[in-house]
Amino acid sequence: MAAHKPVSVCDTIKCTNRHLYPSVFNVLVALLTIPVSTATAERSFSCLKRLKTYLRSTMGQTRLQNLAVLHTHSAIDVDVEKIIDIFADKKKRNLNFVF
Question: What is the pTM of this model?
């Protein structure tokens, strides 16, 4: 009976004895962390280029980084009301009105 041949890197890791072949196991784990393509990185740089071109030098580095992060994670739904409540609670104002 023939031995089962793994068809993917995940299958290969499951079949590899990590104690007998630690170097092979480490290479396979490293192979899993390498992205299949560089499309995500290229999209990020393209977005950064558009942001910087549009706003030019009117923004600082912190704002540029924050806008890039927002664009990168644009698929995440944000509850605007919750964010407003968080920031509104940070600056509690105790105003004493004198009449």
Answer: 0.35
